[in-house]
Write a structure and sequence with these properties.
Elements (H helix, E strand, L loop, with lengths): L3 E4 L4 E4 L7 E6 L10 H19 L3 E8 L4 H10 L3 H18 L7 E4 L4 H13 L3 E4 L2 E4 L23 E2 L11 E6 L16 E2 L1 H13 L3 E7 L3 H16 L4 E7 L2 E3 L2 E2 L10 H5 L5 H10 L6 E3 L1 H23 L8 H19 L4 H20 L8 H15 L6 H7 L8 H7 L3 H9 L12 H16 L3 H13 L2 E6 L2 E6 L1
Parallel strand pairs: 3-4, 3-11, 4-5, 8-9, 11-12, 13-15
Antiparallel strand pairs: 1-2, 6-7, 7-9, 9-10, 13-14, 16-17
Bound molecules: zinc ion.
């Protein structure tokens, strides 16, 4: 069966076919590096990782480009507030993003580029658009003339009849009702960073960067462009307009968009107190592999309802798979082969591949493997499993894990490496007052169980700050939840007039 994807541009499932042989160019919109990325962002990044892994699994030669937006309204606002240069401010979040990616086993794209390293190329594309009369200058800024590009709205399928020619918008994000000429280049404002260029002093708008960086590395027409559904308008619509107006060629063949993540059935937002960065979950003791699994488990075009119950189940599911693999490799079976069982393993592999080919139906791909595990466990319990049957089952598991990437138990190692937990030592056990049973764990070299007891001082301070903020906002339920979570990790809070003090139990 061939790989089929849902193309937002056509609104249909389509067979995936590259322009040339098996070469695939893919561009994914990276993060705006003004804060830690949240789990909604990672839902999209995990989907894109699954997509890139599946393309490679199917033998395509992939060139994947991802940008880092390090200049836009948000990065400028926050760096100014922090009293740092744009570069110094964003560097911290670029690094945090790279760490998060490793924690979630996200493969590195072939090319990662910062927007501010491509300003010259953006200037050139804007010059082309001005020359072709698709763009015009006004008060030191340059705007894209939406009315000049006949196909505007092809991705979003919006009705443009309400748009007044020449009405302009300066903000990077706006909704469909505000569709109008948008800024390609923004005149410098008091106290904001700017570049001296042939266009005059200023800085690029958000949308132009992705047109420029994608075409620079992938050519004027390439296969896949992807992001979250919130990027369809205006970001991707504007990218198409800028690129196709400049080149006169189709920009992208397949547009793939991931649906939103919601938390307990509600939109995730800071004001509701249900907003989580990846780090928020890690310091509560949740494992990166479980988070990856949960984010991957729901097909990307469906809403993903994130719950802590779901996260626990994800952890258990991974355990079941790891235990099965352990059983396969460690248990002794009598010699011989059981042909029916071997066929069962191969059928599961086929079902997994068919599901992935069906627009990355990860839920079915998981189902296929779990059904196989159940049948194999039953056969083992009944003594029907033979030594010669190991290979096909291991093969199916290995193929499945090339995409899902959770079988290797590397959580603790990663968390220690990136400073989320300290390696357990007897000295640390004394300081944190670990129980004897936890000390015994140290001796065995299995550290995971005590992870939450080893929250770093910095992490504890951060939780306390968040709790203070929740209390200020009157969200006492969330504040209480944080206190309870800290208590579970043996951190005791004491509130006083001068603030909150804490100690380890
Ligand atoms: Zn983009």
């Amino acid at each position: 069966m061939s790989f089929r994807v849902y193309n937002t541009l056509s609104g249909q499932l389509e067979e995936f076919k590259p322009l040339h042989d098996n070469q695939v160019g893919m561009y994914t919109c990276g993060p705006t590096v003004y804060d830690f990325a949240h789990i909604g962002n990672y839902r999209t990044f995990v989907f894109q990782d699954i997509l890139r892994r599946w393309l490679k699994y199917r033998g395509y030669s992939l060139r994947h480009v991802m940008n880092l937006t390090d200049v836009d309204d948000n990065t400028i606002r926050n760096s100014k507030a922090a009293g740092l240069s744009l570069r110094d401010y964003t560097e911290k979040y670029v690094e945090a993003f790279q760490v998060d990616r490793q924690l979630l086993s996200l493969e590195d794209p072939e090319i990662v580029v910062r927007a501010t390293d491509s300003i010259d190329d953006m200037v050139k594309l804007i010059q082309t658009l001005v020359e072709k009369d698709y763009a015009y200058a006004s008060e030191g800024s340059i705007y894209f003339r939406v009315a000049a590009f006949k196909n505007y709205g092809q991705l979003t399928k919006i009705d443009l009849s309400g748009i007044r020619d020449g009405a302009r918008i300066d903000s990077d994000k706006y909704d469909k009702n505000n569709a109008r000429d948008f800024a390609l280049w923004k005149a410098p404002k008091e106290g904001e960073p700017f570049w001296e260029t042939p266009l005059g002093p200023g800085r690029p708008g958000w949308h132009i960067e992705c047109s420029v960086m994608s075409m620079k590395y992938l050519g004027e027409t390439f296969e896949i462009h992807s992001g979250g559904v919130d990027l369809i308008f205006p970001h991707h619509e504007n990218e198409i307009a800028q690129s196709e107006a400049a080149t006169g060629k189709p920009f992208v063949r397949y547009w793939l968009h991931a649906e939103h993540l919601i938390v307990n059935g509600e939109k995730m937002s800071k004001s509701l107190g249900n907003f989580y960065t990846l780090r928020d979950l890690l310091v509560q003791g949740y494992k990166p592999s479980a988070i990856r699994y949960l984010l991957a488990a729901v097909p990307y075009r469906r809403h993903l309802n994130f719950t802590f119950e779901g996260l626990h189940q994800a952890q258990q599911s991974i355990e079941r798979l790891r235990n099965f693999r352990l059983r396969l490799t460690q248990e002794s079976f009598s010699a011989g082969e059981n042909k029916a069982l071997q066929d069962r393993a191969r059928a599961a592999c086929q079902a997994f591949e068919d599901a992935m080919d069906d627009n990355l139906n990860t839920a079915e791909a998981l189902g296929a493997v779990f059904a196989m595990v159940r049948d194999a466990n039953t056969a083992m319990d009944r003594g029907e499993f033979r030594a010669g049957d190991r290979a096909p089952f291991l093969d199916t598991l290995e193929r499945w894990d090339r995409i899902f990437c959770v079988l290797e138990d590397s959580d603790h190692e990663k968390l220690v490496k990136f400073g989320f937990i300290k390696p357990l030592t007897v000295e640390l056990a004394d300081r944190t007052g670990l129980t004897d049973s936890a000390r015994a764990v140290i001796g065995n070299g299995h550290h995971g169980a005590a992870a939450t007891e080893l929250m770093s001082d910095e992490e504890i301070e951060r939780w306390i700050a968040e709790r203070d903020e929740m209390r200020r906002k009157g969200n006492y339920a969330r504040a209480d939840e944080i206190r309870q979570n800290l208590q579970k990790a043996d951190i005791i809070l004491e509130d006083s007039k001068v603030g909150t003090r804490w100690k380890r139990k």
